[in-house]
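Section 5.1 Outputs to date
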Amino acid sequence: MEAGTTPASAPAPGPSRLRRLLQRRRPSPMDAPAGAAGRRGGSGGGSGGGSDSGDRGSDGGGSGVAPTADGKAAAASSAAAGAADASPPASDSDGSPPALPPVSFFTLFRYASHLDWVLLGVGTAAAIGHGAMLPLFALLFGDLIDAGNSADVLSPTVALDATKTAAWKLILLGGVSGVLSFLQVACWMASSQRQAVRIRTLFTSSLLRQEMGYYDGLSSGTLTAHVTGDVAVIQAGMGEKIATIIQLASTAIAGFAVAFAGSWKLTLVVLSTAPALAAVGGLFGKFAAEATVRGQKSYAAAGAVAEEALALFRTVVAYGGEDTEAAKYERLLRRAAREEERRAHLMGVSIGISMFIMMAVYGLSFWYGGRLVRSGEVTSGSVVTVFFAIIISAMGLGQTAPGISAVHAARGAAPRVFEVIERVSAIDPLDDAAGIVPPAVDGRLALRDVGFAYPSHPDRPVLRGTSVSVGKGQTLALVGASGCGKTTVVQLLERLYDADTGTVEVGGFDVRDLNVQWLRSQIGFVPQSPVLFTGTIRENIALGGGCVVEEVAVDAAAASGAAGAVPRRHVSTREVTDADIIAAAKAANAFDFITALPDGFATQVGTKGGQLSGGQRQRVCIARALVANPAILLADEATASLDTASERVVQDALARAGATRTTVVIAHRLSTVQAADAIAVLGEGGRVIEAGTHSELVARPGGRYRQMVELQTLTDESPAERARRGTDRRRRVHELRAEEGGVATTTSDADAGPARDDGEEEAGVAASAPAAYAKVAVGSDHSAEGISTGDTDESSGISDEKALHMKVDMTTARSVAWRVLRSNRREAPYLVLGVLGAVGSGAAWPIMAIIYSEVIVLLGDTSAGAAGPVNRYSGAFVALGGCMALVMYLQVTMLSVAGERLTLRLRMAAFRAMLRQEVAFFDATNHSVGALSTQLAAQVPLIKGLTGETTGTILMVLASICTGLVVAFLSCWKVALVTLAFTPGVAAGGALEMRRLTTSDAEVKKAYQGAGAVLSEMVDNIRTVTTLGVQREFLRRFQEKLREPITQGRKMAIVSGVGTGLSEVCTFAIWAVALWYGAKLGVDGDCDFLDTLKALTVIIFSFMMIGQAATAMPDLAASITAAAKVFSLVDRPSAIDATAPLPPAEPAWESNEQRLSDVAFSYPSRPGAPVLTGLSVVAPPGSTVALVGSSGCGKSSTLALLQRLYDPTDGLVSHGGISLDAVHPALLRARLAVIPQEPALFTTTFRDNIAYGLHHGPTTADGAPPVVTDEAVAAAAAAAGATAFIDAAGGLDATVGQRGAGLSGGQRQRIAVARALIRRPSVLLSDEATSALDSASEAVVAAALAGGGAYGRTTILVAHRLSTVKDADAIVVVVNGAVAEVGRHTDLIARGGVYAGLVRDQEMDA
């Protein structure tokens, strides 16, 4: 059946609002042709969501699994179909998505509701009216000036009456202006905030609808950035900035009208200077914007380097990469700093020239206005009216630039967001109406002649005519090499993708005909890498609750006018009770460990489940998969990373879970699938090489499965012994399945089997262990299973509250400020010039007010003798403009340059301080990668406020106020006092107004951080969200997090509106009252008009900038706090500093021996939870020693101590006979190579990842570090079995993707092995180096690791898969942080102790 014609491929109706929006959608370049999109289910990326592009398919046969013929025709069809898939758009050459054309202005408001349009209408009308108020003010102010200047001609009483009339009009005008400004700001802010919330919700809802192929071509960071960045830009561009544009446009129109009505000649003269002013602003603004963009790109790149280095800190320190990462970071920072300094110079010149032109315009206006007054064409008041009207209009037009830029930015950002909102998903999990919902659940599964290729590689078919089936209640196991397509089978069964050819059936139905939500609710999925979400254990298990489908009768008459009722389907989340959760936990063998935790089911699992061990996370995932009692269970390498004991528990849980449901299991460790009803061995291209039961396949001479079994065979048991053990194992599985409903009381540890009893109860049996390898210690009695065990490397909990939440008192503030100044002392000349510029800028405003007052009064004198003084004061404006240009350039440029250099210096110091810290520092809950990256990117730049622009603004305001007060009180102290009475209102309103105008996109993003965190977690784990079908739950969480910013937005709209209105009322009132009071004093003979005008204008001009200071003060406080935190970090001594100066020569290493003597250890974050308790292990030179044991017993902690990532609590750790605390950490780690269990790759090429650390090894008296050649890199890759996939990806110069995201887990692990081998280390530490590899690849890697003995390398292995350690010179069994037994493989098997029990659990049956 062609999926394009199935109900499942119809456009998703979704919520009624979204459905209406989708109905009027425009074509999207991200949409595929309907047939292809519907049939394929979207694109698949090269990464396949973390799986290798080959590790995605299967073929099958026998016992419900039938091998098929070669599927060449299907492959060709698959490749052809792949070209027309609904994939994300191709990227440009630089990796960025192609640019989309901006939307039209009105399209920005496409998601506005009726109420939003009402608010926009009211706000627009208010903005137009508000804009006309200032020109009317200029008109009335001219009347006040005429009344004041008439006092010498008319009687003072008449002048007072005229002033009083004009003042009342001005006050009334101020009241109207205040109301209109409030409505303008409040309505536009409220509407934009409402629309932004709606856009965020629609965007998130659309993301949750998309098929997996859509995500395969995009990074999670890109999608999250659309919400955190693009929507903030859209909100800024369709909010009050548009209202401001409308207001300013209205001001310009009304202002020019008033000006031309007052004097068209003077208006034209003044306007002649406008082109010069516009040219200067536009030209320098363009240059500054370009510099800003370049600087921000460099800062973003530097931030990415820092974040990656911090995220992969263990790898960085293990390979001595601290200096390399610091150099990369510094190089990008210096590039950004250069652009910022260039921008500072451009801004300084632009502001200076603009100020000079403005002052020259003032001088020209009053010079020519004086001539018109003396000729009798206009009055002095008319000159002032025209002057003010033109200046107001010109400044209004100039101030529209930021708003217009914001609108352009919003129009550019909108397509990226709107396209996602309007994209119709090929597989819509939220489409209630689409697809069939069978009345009963049938667990039969089948793939019939399926062909499939991921659209990103249409020429690489993964499945070729695959046919595989499994009956209801049976278990099918899929095994084979990495990349054969096993995971793809699971993804097709879940309908994450649609097959190119053939059909995928569940219960006899084509999955494309079934309702997607219902289908996935019938499937429980247990992934290889367990994914838990932030929250409690109870909440995580409840996420597997599935859905409830109801057919609701709807009155058809109401819907369509017809009689009767029609059914409408409603799908909702099933309510999960505590009883369900407890039953699922027991079925998953998780109940005991959960209830043993202090908070039980209410225990917070931490970020990505980091507070639980690997086995615990896996069992919680199993409980989550079982809580809805699904008919089908899919397990993809569910026990790959677990120790034998944990694997046994998880396998028991899976066996019990499979009692009444169909199960498909993927595994490399064959001991875990022996009891399956059918086993399919997959080969290249998903072909089934052979199929049958375990006993049938083992009996085939030369068979592929038999070869795989032999590779994993650990003992020399006879066939009869194996057969007997196999019978016992199968009997146990059947017993577990027979338990009622698969949900019985979980077995205790003792019930887990004889091996468990023999092992964990014999912690002291190895009394005869060779002393050369280990000292046996009795293990503690407490269980090794616990929360956040040391072996998980997830230690956390250190809290440096003093540094991160310190209260900065005045003493600390002074100390911090002085230290910042000392840090900035290299830029002392810049600071001195900048301070002088700031003081000069501040003093210039009162001086300008004096000149302004003098010339206004002189304009009232129509005699010829007044021409000289008017001309001199007009010239004074020009001279003052020249001075202001110089001092403003000094203030802006010098302080900005000084601040930028300080920021560079402190950023580098902070990053180097982070890199030199011991690993325990990063275990702290408040030292997460995000927190530290934020400190570098956001907190450090705040510090420049103490010496940069913020301080300059404060100094300028203080100088202006001090100068202004002196002049005002000397002119007329009574008018000065009356004027000061209004200044608190003006200052408060100005501060609120400045706050509104300067609200940055970053602050908008901050308000939405909670919602962004939910979105980020959702997108990062979208496969888990999709397979669980919890889209509605995450949408609910997202909307819940939006409530706070919605409330804040409403408050901000009202507060900003009130602030703007208050500022308007007080500004109008202060002029009216002060001039009226001055006229009254003139009647009494206390002050003349000139003194009144001086006192008034000086104070107003000076105090207008208080709002800027009020806005800057919080920035100053934030700067001091940030500086205190950064200095606390910089001063923090590291307990293990690998960046300290190197000694003149290396220590005299005696050998490569590794020794731990009576070592006790607890993680600093959990000092009360011992991890090692008297561990003693010796690895002689050239030997291979294996550490085995259950999760949490201390194996990985032992490797961490040997690297000196931590220091032991007690005992001695030595290397070559020298205690590690006596060796420089860099010299020690230069002799080591580490292969971690979860390999960390850098976002760079294969070559750079393999050769990482070699080019910056420590230089000592023994010579320079080794030089890496391409031949050496290629040889290391070949030894690790990585050459084939590296060549397929494009060679050594190809990139590995975002931290290796383009590779499968096995491929990443092989790159990590190559990185270790190329160093030819003296000591190799391997922690589960082959856990993600198939048997053949494991054999290749194991041989490479064993090859180091030829040059005396000492190797210490940690492994759960015991086939990798059976050839070790010594195997040390660790129980509860101490050695239980030690010996060679054969000796330990013969002893029948703990190790023998572990082997029996992993051994193949006959």
